[in-house]
């Protein structure tokens, strides 16, 4: 009896290891404020407008991701797959600019999301993506500032200006 119990325990432990190993190969993309997503969750989020308008690029990218069976990181980080993902992000980015609205999701046309993808490629496949593979470019018809391009310095300066103007206005009112 004891022997059989040991025997079962031994195989259960082996099975547990195999299970853990399969899971350890998961391609984790760690997104700021959202946590880990898998590659097939990377381009799909709840914004029907963007996902419809970019459906051509989205389908092409998701087909390439699905073709990388078992989250094969080498395949997910290969130049053709990465290019299709970038094209989809670029489409989201241009749509947001055209509609002049904020990102509805951290994955929507966001340089930080592409950086997170590149980090996952390095961590899971040892593939280092070059900047050109992950950089969003402004559309040729771009004609004004867009929030994403305010660097930290400009944002801090803007906030300080607003505070100074606000305090000034209150002081003016108070001394009248
Ligand atoms: C992905 O995250 C899980 C924990 O959520 C971890 O067990 C696994 O090792 C990670 N995979 C990689 C490739 O870092
Ligand atoms: C997210 O993925 C990273 C990188 O693989 C891993 O170190 C971390 O444990 C994961 N976090 C969670 C909550 O699964
Ligand atoms: C995807 O977007 C690129 C431009 O970023 C475009 O040239 C290409 O035709 C699009 N592909 C599909 C399938 O819509
Ligand atoms: C992972 O993908 C690469 C490149 O696409 C391929 O050469 C390799 O055989 C794949 N590995 C597995 C285990 O499917
Ligand atoms: C890739 O990962 C290695 C080891 O984790 C690290 O030393 C290196 O700086 C990373 N490269 C990039 C470009 O992030
Ligand atoms: C391959 C794979 O994802 N295997 C399993 C990893 O772990 C979760 C639960 O923690 C399972 O749902 C997956 O099937």
Condensed summary:
With 176 residues, the chain is mainly alpha-helical.
Could you characterize the architecture of this molecule?
With 176 residues, the protein is mainly alpha-helical. It has a domain at 28-134. The chain is built from eight helices and two strands; from the N terminus they run H-E-E-H-H-H-H-H-H-H. The chain has helices spanning 2-24, 48-53, 55-67, 73-76, 79-99, 111-125, 131-134, 152-175, and strands at residues 29-31, 35-37. The longest helix has 24 residues, at 152-175. It is globular. Mean pLDDT is 80; it is low at 10-14, 16-23 and 150-161. Bound molecules: 2-acetamido-2-deoxy-beta-D-glucopyranose (NAG) (6 copies).
What labels describe this entry?
176 residues, mainly alpha, 8 helices, 3% strand, binds 2-acetamido-2-deoxy-beta-D-glucopyranose
Dominant shape: globular
Q: Which strand order do you get reading across the main beta sheet? A: 1-2
Beta-strand residue fraction: under 5%
Q: N- to C-terminal separation?
A: 95 Å
Unreliable parts: 10-14, 16-23, 150-161
Bound molecules: 2-acetamido-2-deoxy-beta-D-glucopyranose
Q: Largest sheet, described in full?
A: 2 strands, antiparallel
Reconstruct the topology from this structure.
Layout: H1 2-24, E1 29-31, E2 35-37, H2 48-53, H3 55-67, H4 73-76, H5 79-99, H6 111-125, H7 131-134, H8 152-175
Antiparallel strand pairs: 1-2
The structure holds 2-acetamido-2-deoxy-beta-D-glucopyranose (6 copies).
One 2-acetamido-2-deoxy-beta-D-glucopyranose (NAG) is lined by residues 28, 30, 35-36, 123.
């Amino acid at each position: 009896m004891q022997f059989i119990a040991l025997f079962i325990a031994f195989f259960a432990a082996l099975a547990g290891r195999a299970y853990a190993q399969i899971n350890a190969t998961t391609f984790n993309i760690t997104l700021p404020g959202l946590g880990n997503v898998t590659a097939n969750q990377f381009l799909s989020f709840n914004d029907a407008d963007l996902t419809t308008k970019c459906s051509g690029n989205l389908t092409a990218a998701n087909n390439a991701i699905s073709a990388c069976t078992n989250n094969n990181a080498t395949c997910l980080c290969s130049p053709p797959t990465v290019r299709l993902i970038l094209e989809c992000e670029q489409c989201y980015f241009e749509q947001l600019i055209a509609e002049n609205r904020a990102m509805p999701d951290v994955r929507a046309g966001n340089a930080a999301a592409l950086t997170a993808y590149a980090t996952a490629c390095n961590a899971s496949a040892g593939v280092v993506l070059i900047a050109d593979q992950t950089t969003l470019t402004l559309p040729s018809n771009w004609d004004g500032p867009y929030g994403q391009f305010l660097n930290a310095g400009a944002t801090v300066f803007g906030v300080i200006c607003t505070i100074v103007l606000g305090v000034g206005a209150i002081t003016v009112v108070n001394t009248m």
